[in-house]
């Protein structure tokens, strides 16, 4: 029997270029109406007893080809455990092998977080005591932009993820945050809920998530470049969230992402906003330093270059919220590779570790909330 390749499912993305025996050439599809691509997620059937060689032939043309060196594909036979497998990037082609005793195997750029899992998370958390669910608006494809409000305190905290849908680690982080915040047996969470009200948007880009996009929504728009002037026509997802933020105000915010190249967890801040003050910047810096001391899965040595004074891009959410509200806002970047200061040879960075990092972030926030 020949093997078959399928990506016609929630978050699936791949095209078959050619199959010759046990050798498969593949290409990642572009985001709809966009030149971005890098996310892949597909199934191979008929794999039992074979040694397959799979090649992604257009890897060099992807959005971030500098992210491929040192990267390892995730593979799963049960869609629960996603292990890293040996991967090569040579002459612009991403290549990997598979040998196993299972008929079916799935491959993905990172451990997927499907819309089906998102819907189950929202339903589960909405039933927890003290949680209020709001549908802030709808995406271009008509999917709900869900928000879960937790807590009664005066400090307004916004946690939001997956503006870039292929960064699935971001929603794993949100799952961890929501579980921690609703844990009735956690006295730290209970005390934090009394000091702050949390507004949690687990998935800002459900259309891109379902379509298997890397970075854009159904119109090919990068939502994290829409925060200055969002529109109903191109970015209703941002518009409805920003309107909700205007209604509550924002004291503290984390925008959760993934980074293709840097093998570490890190924050990006709001340096360069017109209203920058050293006092506000010091709170952002202190949060990162405390988190690095609190968790072996965070560090402050590696990260992005900082914007020059007055040169911040206000179309990006972290800069917009700091400028608009005086918020202590930050972008959390997690790796598609591994957190090299504390590596895991089997799973690399993973959904489970993303959830644990969320717990650590909230524990640090609990220690700092009075000063924010």
TrEMBL record:
<dbReference type="InterPro" id="IPR050821">
    <property type="entry name" value="Cytosolic_carboxypeptidase"/>
</dbReference>
<comment type="similarity">
    <text>Belongs to the peptidase M14 family.</text>
</comment>
<dbReference type="InterPro" id="IPR000834">
    <property type="entry name" value="Peptidase_M14"/>
</dbReference>
<feature type="active site" description="Proton donor/acceptor">
    <location>
        <position position="333"/>
    </location>
</feature>
<feature type="domain" description="Peptidase M14">
    <location>
        <begin position="111"/>
        <end position="372"/>
    </location>
</feature>
<dbReference type="GO" id="GO:0006508">
    <property type="term" value="P:proteolysis"/>
</dbReference>
<protein>
    <recommendedName>
        <fullName>Peptidase M14 domain-containing protein</fullName>
    </recommendedName>
</protein>
<dbReference type="InterPro" id="IPR040626">
    <property type="entry name" value="Pepdidase_M14_N"/>
</dbReference>
<dbReference type="GO" id="GO:0004181">
    <property type="term" value="F:metallocarboxypeptidase activity"/>
</dbReference>
<dbReference type="GO" id="GO:0008270">
    <property type="term" value="F:zinc ion binding"/>
</dbReference>
<dbReference type="Pfam" id="PF00246">
    <property type="entry name" value="Peptidase_M14"/>
</dbReference>
<dbReference type="Pfam" id="PF18027">
    <property type="entry name" value="Pepdidase_M14_N"/>
</dbReference>
């Amino acid at each position: 029997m020949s093997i078959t390749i399928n990506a016609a499912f929630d978050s699936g993305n791949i095209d078959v270029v050619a199959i010759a025996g046990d050798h498969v050439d593949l290409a990642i599809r572009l985001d709809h109406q966009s030149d971005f691509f890098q996310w892949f997620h597909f199934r191979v059937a008929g794999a039992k007893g074979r040694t397959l060689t799979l090649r992604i032939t257009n890897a060099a043309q992807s959005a971030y080809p500098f992210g491929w060196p040192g990267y390892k594909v995730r593979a799963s036979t049960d869609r629960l455990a996603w292990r890293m497998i040996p991967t090569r990037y040579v002459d612009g082609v991403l290549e990997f092998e598979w040998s196993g005793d299972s008929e079916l195997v799935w491959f993905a750029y990172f451990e997927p977080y499907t819309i089906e899992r998102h819907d189950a998370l929202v339903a589960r958390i909405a039933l927890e005591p003290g949680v209020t669910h709001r549908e802030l608006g709808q995406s271009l494809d008509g999917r709900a932009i869900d928000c879960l409000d937790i807590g009664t305190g005066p400090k307004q905290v916004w946690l939001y993820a997956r503006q870039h849908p292929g960064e699935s680690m971001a929603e794993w982080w949100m799952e961890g945050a929501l579980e921690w915040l609703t844990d009735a047996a956690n006295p730290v969470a209970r005390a934090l809920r009394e000091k702050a009200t949390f507004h949690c948007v687990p998935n800002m880009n459900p259309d891109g998530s379902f379509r298997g996009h890397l970075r854009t929504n159904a119109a090919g728009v990068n939502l994290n470049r829409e925060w200055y002037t969002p529109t109903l026509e191109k970015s209703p997802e941002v518009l409805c969230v920003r309107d909700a933020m205007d209604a509550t105000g924002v004291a503290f915010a984390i925008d959760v992402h993934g980074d293709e190249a840097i093998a570490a967890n890190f924050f990006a801040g709001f340096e360069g906003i017109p209203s920058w003050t050293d006092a506000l910047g010091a709170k952002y810096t202190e949060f990162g330093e405390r988190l690095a001391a609190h968790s072996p899965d965070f560090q402050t040595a590696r990260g992005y270059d900082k914007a020059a004074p007055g040169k911040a891009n206000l179309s990006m959410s972290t800069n917009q919220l700091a400028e608009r509200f005086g918020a202590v806002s930050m972008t959390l970047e997690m790796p598609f590779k591994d957190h090299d200061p504390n590596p895991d040879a089997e799973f690399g960075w993973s959904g489970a570790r993303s959830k644990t990092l969320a717990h650590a972030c909230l524990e640090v926030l609990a220690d700092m909330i009075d000063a924010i």
